[in-house]
Write a structure and sequence with these properties.
Strand content: over 45%
Length: 126
């Protein structure tokens, strides 16, 4: 069984940087699609970034390109989200997710991911 355990997050000021980490335990990490989603207060969960399992290519929400970077370390079974120049509208609970079967066209859909981290709060003050 796959388990995802997140770390990082917290309260930062606008313009600061933050890195979130997600530790993957279980089988087939290197062949899993891994992703980050977030859920702002009062809103639905939304796609942030993903690394697709077959190609290793990164995909981002259009509004976050250039500020956020997703990466993985297959030797340590870790996924990271580097967030730079944070803005108050980035305030949300952030979740890492993984799946071993989804297809590219469903990459941005939270319902397609089987495994989720516990979530971590990121709050950006102005």
């Amino acid at each position: 069984q796959v388990q995802l355990v997140q770390s990082g997050g917290g309260l930062v000021q606008a313009g600061d940087s933050l890195r979130l980490s997600c530790a993957f335990s279980g089988r087939a990490f290197s062949t899993s699609t891994v992703a980050w989603f977030r859920q702002p207060p009062g809103k639905e969960r939304e796609f942030v970034a993903a690394l697709f399992r077959s190609t290793g290519r990164a995909y981002y929400a259009d509004s976050l390109k250039g500020r956020f970077t997703i990466s993985r370390d297959n030797t340590k079974n870790m996924v990271f989200l580097q967030m730079n120049n944070l803005k108050p509208e980035d305030t949300a609970v952030y979740y890492c997710a993984a799946d071993q079967r989804l297809i590219l066209s469903t990459l941005r859909l939270p319902g397609q991911y089987d495994f989720w981290g516990q979530g971590t709060q990121v709050t950006v003050s102005s």
